[in-house]
Amino acid sequence: MTVAEQLSSRAMAVLRAVAAGRAQLTGGCEPALYIDGLPCCDQMVSHDLVHAGLLRASRVVGLYERTEAELTDAGRAAIT
Questions:
Q1: What angle do CA 76, 51, 47 make, to 5 degrees?
Q2: Architecture of domain 3-79 in CATH?
Q3: Rounded distance, CA 59 to CA 51, Å?
């Protein structure tokens, strides 16, 4: 089973939003995800995607600072 087959439709939508440049992450070990400037309604999905190595912050930021979210190579593979 591929990674994409294991992901929910919500997780896939989050990955597509990140790929489209619409997402930001805060710093910290459990980063908050913002899509189109609004907090993501399912923070568990964003935490799971970060911990699975599918998305990451584009640079290191402080706890309450935001930076662009980006897909990892594995994240790009999951949505192709």
A1: 95
A2: Orthogonal Bundle (1.10)
A3: 16
Pairing verdict, β 66-71 and 55-57: antiparallel
In whole angstroms, what is the distance from residue 74 CA to residue 1 CA? 14
Task: List strands edge to edge, sheet with 38-39.
Answer: 38-39, 33-35, 23-26, 66-71, 55-57
Alpha helices (H) along 20-80? 43-51, 73-79
CB-count exposure of residue 50 (10 Å: 0-12, 13-18, 19+)? buried
What angle do helix axes 9-19 and 43-51 make, rounded to 10 degrees?
A: 70
What confidence tens digit (pLDDT) does each residue in 11-25 have? Answer: 999 999 999 999 999
Q: Tell me the β-bridge partners of 67.
A: 25
User: What is the pTM assigned to this prediction?
Assistant: 0.90
Residue 75: Cβ within 10 Å count:
23
